Amino acid sequence: MATETNNTDEESQTQTQPLLESHQHRQSLRGSLTNIYQYTFMKWVLCFLIGLTVGLIGFADNLAVENLAGVKFVITSNMMLEDRYLMAFLVFAVSNFVLTLFAAVITAFFATEAAGSGIPEVKAYLNGVDAPGIFSIRTLFVKIIGSIAAVSASLQVGKAGPLVHTGACIAALLGQGGSKKYGLTWRWLRFFKNDRDRRDLITCGSAAGIASAFRAPIGGLLFSLEEMASWWRSALVWRAFFTTAIVALVLRALIDVCLSGKCGLFGTGGLIMFDVTSEDSAYHLSDVPYVLVLGVIGGILGSLYNFLLEKVLRVYNLINERGAAYKIILACSISIFTSCLLFGLPWLATCLPCPQDSSEPCPSIGRSGNFKKFQCRPGYYNDLASLIFNTNDDAIRNLFSANTDSESQYSSVLIFFATCFCLSILSYGIVAPAGLFVPVIVTGASYGRFVGMLLGSNSNLNHGLFAVLGAASFLGGTMRMTVSLCVILLELTNNLLLLPLIMVVLLISKTVADAFNGNVYDLIMKLKGFPYLKGHAEPYMRQLTVADVVTGPLQVFHGIEKVSNIVYVLKTTRHHGFPIIDEPPLSESPVLYGLILRAHLITLLKRRAFLPTPMLTGTDAFKHFTAWDFAKKGWGNPDEIDDVDLTEEQMEMFLDLHPFTNASPYTVVESMSLAKALILFREVGLRHLLVIPKVSGRTPVAGILTRHDFMPEHILGLYPLMVRSKWKRLRVQLPRLLKLF
Amino acid sequence: MATETNNTDEESQTQTQPLLESHQHRQSLRGSLTNIYQYTFMKWVLCFLIGLTVGLIGFADNLAVENLAGVKFVITSNMMLEDRYLMAFLVFAVSNFVLTLFAAVITAFFATEAAGSGIPEVKAYLNGVDAPGIFSIRTLFVKIIGSIAAVSASLQVGKAGPLVHTGACIAALLGQGGSKKYGLTWRWLRFFKNDRDRRDLITCGSAAGIASAFRAPIGGLLFSLEEMASWWRSALVWRAFFTTAIVALVLRALIDVCLSGKCGLFGTGGLIMFDVTSEDSAYHLSDVPYVLVLGVIGGILGSLYNFLLEKVLRVYNLINERGAAYKIILACSISIFTSCLLFGLPWLATCLPCPQDSSEPCPSIGRSGNFKKFQCRPGYYNDLASLIFNTNDDAIRNLFSANTDSESQYSSVLIFFATCFCLSILSYGIVAPAGLFVPVIVTGASYGRFVGMLLGSNSNLNHGLFAVLGAASFLGGTMRMTVSLCVILLELTNNLLLLPLIMVVLLISKTVADAFNGNVYDLIMKLKGFPYLKGHAEPYMRQLTVADVVTGPLQVFHGIEKVSNIVYVLKTTRHHGFPIIDEPPLSESPVLYGLILRAHLITLLKRRAFLPTPMLTGTDAFKHFTAWDFAKKGWGNPDEIDDVDLTEEQMEMFLDLHPFTNASPYTVVESMSLAKALILFREVGLRHLLVIPKVSGRTPVAGILTRHDFMPEHILGLYPLMVRSKWKRLRVQLPRLLKLF
Q1: Contact B487/A218, CB-based, under 8 Å?
Q2: How many CB atoms lie within 10 A of CB B268?
Q3: Taking every annotated instance into account, which residue ranges of this chain make up the domain CBS (chains A, B) (predicted)?
């Protein structure tokens, strides 16, 4: 899909104003103390606004889902109480269908970027890959509304991923400061017109997303550090922490309001907070073996899930490529299939008699509760319906609840597990905002509860605890995070005593799953074709030098260059950076002056500040420009060389590029080991890395390395024998049986 | 004090075997799959061992302190029940004196490196500064035993800092694999003989330290990430998490044993776990203003604490410099002063009548409990003694406990706060292992409880909660961490619902305190003279180029160098790395071949594999060496050039340095901005950075940059005018009044 890679900007790693590192302009815009104060103040204000907005949206999201889905379930349940089963099914299926159709239509026609969870896109952005349109206003609106519709439609999708994307969108849009087109920019926001500050804001935004989805501020922070961010600084932790603290406070305040019953059907269900706190959550070393087994199976299931999801997404991609109509039909078919399963399966379960000593009414009245009546006689309840004919949040609460060990049958939990497993794989790839977190949690929880039921009295742990551990193991097996998942689960269940067990389960399941395949988000990123730059060098890279992978003809400019030349090169190449070389008489011998960016060249051409003769301009050059001209552009359409229209006369004039050149580009010698060059490229966060020749005397630049030159696909394309080397990844290959799928 | 800076090794950033990046030997030792498996296996085994050992030591530490201090308090309390006050004081003071003397003597005579908390030393090491002897076996033993003695001696010192140092020591020693001298090395440990793997292990060790001190596995992990580690990778999070999970499991198992009463006086007191869980821990937005005020004052107090601590440490340094006797006298005086205060102050408090409805016995029997009798009549208790005449752990528990709002008087809490504040400042600098965490927590908790008492019924929060928040604010004001402190406090109090409030308090207090001065550990590091490299470039560095700061005569070697030359240069300089240059006839023009380390040159000289004539040796050169020869040495005495004794004849021979040279050193052009060079140096974790000239034709190397060249003191020494520039740090200067101190 999206393959444009407008990556991170090397200048922005060291300062906020990319352009102004050039020799003449070391005194940057942020020169005065006032500017520093403005910048610091704005940094925190923006984080505050991100926290506030994401908190509000997260709450509104929950409120809408709880009410939409709530009304649907109340109406259908009431009909079933009156034995009008067909009518109930129709109401259920049609409302699901309409909601899915709505979500699919707005996604397909207004913002296809809003489909899916959005976490892979944000993760790739934070690594330096700009997929077009992922942070536009349209995407934001479609993501919020579409996610509400898709979740309310009882599709097996979550809202955590979309909330992360929403948070990132809000951060990006706030940092961009409205739109220049509509005159909404603000002078104080000019400091954020560069890649580094934007990346920081978006990291905070994604932390806020998870924080508001699970009411888990520390979990959200850790998630953004462990999974999302490619670069990390202590200062960023602090700001992200502030953002998630604001989210937590906002949610706390709003829930205070809702507890007084002003939020319609928003009951205990919203903003998942499962209290597994019970007196008997004690556990001993003798329980550890069961937990280990749970972790191992969870890891295997998780990697199987990733494997199947990838296959399904490949098939879906073939369908979706055919056009919007196919996309929408696919989404609608999934909706109908889901409705049939959710309504049909509970009929398979036998009705259980209501327990005598239950504290809850049985059968449940309204929409939540452990005892759904469904088709049963009065005094009986359908345990499968309590799980399956319910919102995911309520299902998770039912599974996590303690002291309900005898309420479910083996078969019901097993059917529920299988249904969730299949439906969540089938639902992710449709053209609607769809998260993976909640489906994975609910699937894992049902798996865990089933294991707990199988073990029965062999273990001291109650089934609710097993469900929590099952969720942990399945999350570890798919998402492959450790600390952040652990904290998110602790914050969800509000029981710190579970910590050691959850830790062990996560470690085991991640280790097991890593033997088979990768992280689910990495798989999706790969499917989408994002050139994600990993943090470590592959072993075979140590056997290559930089000179081995530099390819293609190198385009350089002279310090003072003819306009027609610049236009010609910009039109015929797609490079984003060009080395600037000074030759005699400007210097004694050819010497590398620096690196200029395509975007800056286009700005120079657009302003037409040309010179009639080749001469040096010095700092006067800047009088034609403001800092805005060279600031990183917003998320709209970038300037293109084709938009520049010059006369014959102008084409014959000259430009002094020196003042606009980054005179301190990072360089490596051509004999440098590729692995070491990658470390430099990745750790410093570069977009271009200049290669200089080892032996002086020849041309001063030997080539230019970009992200694509470090991609394993590129290198292995050049040196196919490397694949067969002993450096292959340590990974168990799935048996051929699975390949047949 | 220690200023040797044997920093991180650039080679080790990309591979495990530093030497073998040279052209001829790209096929490194880890070439075979078996080696990779061995390495991976050992990595996890070492983490397991670190977790296990640190967990055991943390538990033993607690057990010893609880029993030593417990016996002391039980004996004195029993004497006081019999009204033998003078005798009680003597027993108390003498036992404290003896324990302090013991701790001071072993520290002063066996391992002065074990004095203090050890966190600054470990933090500096992880930044690349090797202080000599901090990870020796002697230091480890003195740290453990000395810490037990010092804490049992009722000094106002903690055991968390020493446990971090202990964890780091254990990690370093395990990674080193015993001692070569005693034949304790193991072949599989050869992979860890380099800076990068050692740093990783030590990061895990320090995480384990905090985890075992507070039974806070996630808090420990975050502490090591936020405060300790200078480089951070996702993979490291996972391993550190595993380590702290092991610690948590070990502690859990051992506490299971202790709960059955087999641990002597180790009661609820050991391994601080304060349950503030109470039904009425609800809070509302109306409480936020009080919390803000608490945070602001806490921040001011925290920065004042840091300020005073620095002044006291400066005075102590003057005393300690005079010799071991002075050190020990200082420690003993502090012990006597402490004993007098702890025993004397409770007499100032008026006795309170025992509450009628108390669930605990009043006055308390044994050593813990809220109702110490001290000098009071039967039926009465001394509230100040309950706090002050107690271990710190018990005092914290008393302060944190809910539903005890009426048990203390204003004056008692205020006196306790002032005592803790002063004593902890006075106690830190003595020659004994001494942590800061627990003293800061107890001081902050008393401050918070006092504020809670002042507010009385104006706030809905109970005083125990105020104590927790006060501890948070004071921790934030001194340590300046956010996320890790927040999680540690949550794990300590086991109440996740406090999260938003603690977050807000920490943010406020850190922000306020940052306006005045720095982190307490940074202050101590600066006092100790460690050249700590910060993560960001100072603004004035943007105005300088690399060429502006390169100093001193540059020593280079030729690819084939005469032995006498090498010996001469090594004897006359202290450099740790030397550029290797090839000249005609080896190349057409002088060309930079690479960089060789001092340690490797000494190894070459020691092995005496010299050539009679200048010639190239190729890979044959390695047949005289094993990988061990070039591996990073252990923590013992490094090889010195003065140990090498060569004959006249050998001095006239030659060495081909090519096979032993790192042929891919990182380089920057001399016109590179200093700020950007610092980013490269810091992010990639270099020890040497070669500067190459901009214009080719001259000598191929213009200089070499090391850590010291990036130190602000060095740069501002060269360019004093920079200090006066507008780039000064944004920091409120403390009023002159305080300077008088």
Answers
A1: yes
A2: 15
A3: 660-721
Q: How confident is the model at residue A8 (pLDDT cuts 50, 70, 90)?
A: very low
Nearest to B245 among A40, A233, A500 (CB): A500
Distance in angstroms (rounded) separating the CA atoms of residues B204 and B451: 38
Residues in chain A: 741
The Cα–Cα gap between A449 and B475 comes to 41
Cβ–Cβ below 8 Å for B730 and A40: yes
Cis peptide before B585 (omega within 30 of 0): yes
Q: A708 to chain B nearest CA, in Å?
A: 20
**Residue of chain B whose Cα is closest to the Cα of A670:** B664
* Per-residue pLDDT at B375: 82
Residue of A nearest to B22 (CA): A673
Dihedral of alpha carbons A254, A258, A260, A262, sign: positive
Q: Which residue among A37, A234, A504 sits closest to B535, beta carbon to beta carbon? A: A234
CA count, 13 A, side-chain hemisphere, B737: 2
Residues of chain B contacting A587 with CB distance shorter than 8 Å? 695
Q: From the candidates B10, B11, B14, which should be mutated to test the interface with A, based on the most A CB atoms within 10 A?
A: B14
Smallest CA-to-CA distance from B493 within B397, B573, B403 is with B397
B218 contacts A28? CB cut-off 8 A: no
CA distance linking residue B13 with residue A212, whole number of Å = 38
Q: Which of B502, B434, B510 is nearest to B467 (CA)?
A: B502
Record: contact A671-B664, CB cut-off 8 A: yes
Q: 3-state SS string over B428-462?
A: HCCCCECECHHHHHHHHHHHHHHHHHHHHHHCCCC
**How close is the nearest chain B Cα to the Cα of A564, in Å?**
29
Give contacts of A488 with chain B, Cβ < 8 Å.
Answer: none
CA–CA dist B308, B289 (Å, integer): 29
Nearest to A237 among B33, B483, B537 (CB): B483
User: Measured between alpha carbons, how far apart are the two ends of chain B, in Å?
Assistant: 24
Q: What is the DSSP letter of B533?
A: -
Q: Which two tokens stand for residue B161?
A: 């800092």
CA B229 to chain centroid, in Å, comes to 10
Nearest to A697 among B238, B589, B679 (CB): B589
Distance CA(A254)–CA(A248), nearest Å, equals: 10
Are the beta carbons of A175 and A197 closer than 8 angstroms? yes
Q: What is the pLDDT of residue B165?
A: 96
Please give, rounded to a whole number of angstroms, the shortest distance from the CA of B675 to a CA of chain A: 7
CA distance B179 to B177: 6
Contacts of A287 in chain B (CB under 8 A): none
Give the pair of three-digit tokens for residue A423: 């439906």
Residue A18, pLDDT > 60, answer no
From A479's Cα to the closest Cα of chain B, the distance in A is 13
Please, what is the angle between helix A85-110 and helix A137-152, to 10°? 170
Check A700 against B697: CB less than 8 A apart: no
Please report the number of interchain residue pairs, chain A to chain B, with beta-carbon separation below 8 angstroms.
215
Closest by Cα among B277, B265, B147, B156 to B213:
B147
For residue B380, is pLDDT > 50? yes
Q: Does the CA dihedral B231-B233-B236-B241 come out positive or negative?
A: positive
Which DSSP string corresponds to B539-588?
GGGGG-BHHHH--SPPP-EESEEEHHHHHHHHHH---SEEEEEE-TTSSS
Whole-number Å distance between alpha carbons of B712 and A657: 33
Q: Give B593 to chain A, closest Cα distance, Å.
A: 9
pLDDT in tens, B511-570: 899 888 889 999 999 999 888 988 777 778 888 888 888 876 788 898 888 888 888 888
* Cα distance between residue A330 and residue A108, in whole Å: 12
User: Cβ A592–B26 below 8 Å, yes or no?
Assistant: no
Q: Are strands A591-597 and A577-582 parallel, antiparallel or unpaired?
A: antiparallel
